[in-house]
Amino acid sequence: MKYKQLLNELNVKEEVVMEFFVVFSRFEFALKKAGYLKTGRNESALPDWNDFAIKNEDKFDMEKDARLSEAWNYLDKEPPQMQIVNNGKLDFKIDERLNDKSSLYKAALAIKTVRNNLFHGGKFPRSGIVDDPARKTELLKKCVILLEEMLDLDPDVKKEFFSAGNGMLFTEYQYVNN
Fold it and tell me: Which of 78, 115, 133, 152 is deepest in the core (most CB within 10 A)?
């Protein structure tokens, strides 16, 4: 299979998709290693985003700097929509779980929704569902900014994210300055 052709179908630069994918997956790994862990079906290990949001909400300052504020405002004002079935057909709607939730919870849920849409096939063009490549690109970039901020909220998650013992081949300094 020619994965490059499929990447081209997304109408998003490969670097943007790959950056989101690796930062998201490494972040979920770090959540689990840091103890934000719950059990799924068949005893599978799942990251506990809700516990992370509850324990770190008071540290989340979306006005910390302009870049973070812009990322937060973009996702808050135009949240990604979740894929649903409407009258037997695929459709999208805003997730009602975003109502009356903390800022960090909303950010985490938005990031997971973007991931679900991208990796469960909800965002390919010519699928019969309205698709905006520029919006996808912005969503992915804003999510990476928020994930990087989330690393700074919990020292244990950050330690696990960058731990050489977890297979990391570069330091936090190299990650931030590249």
Answer: 115
Contacts of 5 (CB under 8 A, 6+ apart): none
**What is the number of alpha carbons within 13 Å of residue 91 lying toward its C-beta?**
8
Cα within 13 Å of Cα(54), Cβ side:
5
Of 133 and 136, more confident = 136
How far is it, in rounded angstroms, from Cα 171 to Cα 161? Answer: 10
Mean pLDDT (the chain) is 84
pLDDT in tens, 99-113: 778 899 999 999 999
Report the alpha-carbon distance of residue 109 to residue 102 in Å, rounded: 11
DSSP string, the chain: --HHHHHHHHTS-HHHHHHHHHHHHHHHHHHHHTT-EEE-GGG-EEE-HHHHHHHHGGG--TTSSHHHHHHHHHHHHSPPEEEEEETTEEEEEE-GGGTT--HHHHHHHHHHHHHHHHHTTTT-TTSSS---HHHHHHHHHHHHHHHHHHHHH-HHHHHHHH-GGGT--S-HHHHHT-
Q: What ranges do the domains of the chain cover?
A: 3-176
Query: At 77, phi and psi to the nearest 5?
Result: -80, -30
Q: Residue 162 and residue 30: Cα distance in Å, rounded?
A: 9
